[in-house]
Amino acid sequence: MSGIKDRLILASGSPQRFSLLVQAGFEPEVRVPEVDESILVGESANSLVERLSVKKLDAVINVGECGVAADTVVSINEKILGKPGTPEIALEMLQTLSGVTHQVITGVALSGPKGRRSLIVATQVKWRDLTKEEIVNYIQTGEPLDKAGGYGIQGGGKNFVVSYEGSFDNIVGLPVDEVISCLNELGCDCSK
Q1: How far is CA 165 from the centre of its chain?
Q2: Which of 40, 157, 167, 183 could connect to 151 by a Cys-Cys bridge, CB 3.0–4.6 Å?
Q3: Active centre residues (catalytic)
Q4: Mind listing the domains of the chain with CATH numbers?
Q5: Half-sphere exposure of 174 (CA within 13 A, CB side)
Q6: Which residues contact 169 (CB under 8 A, 6 or more apart)?
Q7: How far is 192 from 189, CA to CA, in rounded Å?
Q8: 36, 46, 120: which is closest to 80 by C-alpha?
């Protein structure tokens, strides 16, 4: 029978986060939190992702359990770009990102037998200039609609990236190295 410290719970329905944890050697149990992800008036990207990751963790992880929750946004010039949801908003977001550098910011909340912790990881991403036709074709794939900033770097969005500085996994949705380090500090032993 597995103990509380050798079972990792992922407080997210994100297939990207699940896949990143599996690739890192975990067999996470998924619990999907229901949390209002609305941005508060005047809230910064860092405050937003930290607040939402903590809310997600608190919603489904019991005290002492090894768990991880995260929230990712794209930020450009202090503007927060979440999941577009519609093709029209995706078009606007992708045009905004064309040819510029932006930040992918992930807030992570973690728990374990030794307590809870939250952290924020930011990665700089530079895009090439895109044509409207490229953007429209990408939107037609459906991929941008449920991704922060309207793109997935693990999918078609990789074709737009010139360079990045920082954690690649963070751009996908979970900074795995930082997560593993924190889980170890919190007394979790839940990798294979």
Answers
A1: 16
A2: 157
A3: 71
A4: 4-185 (3.90.950.10)
A5: 26
A6: 20, 175, 176, 177
A7: 9
A8: 46
Euclidean distance between CA atoms 124 and 102, whole angstroms? 6
Copy the structure tokens of residue 24: 């890192």
With beta carbons less than 8 A apart as the criterion, state whether 110 and 186 touch.
Answer: yes
| Tens-digit pLDDT profile for residues 88-102 | 999 999 999 999 999
Helices (H) and strands (E) in the chain, counts: 6, 7
Under a CB-based contact definition with an 8 Å cutoff, are residues 171 and 5 in contact?
no
Q: How confident is the model at residue 189 (pLDDT cuts 50, 70, 90)?
A: confident
- Asked if 151 contacts 143 with a C-beta cutoff of 8 angstroms, the reply is yes
CA 53-58-59 angle, 5° bins: 100
Give the position of tokens 């996994």.
Answer: 169
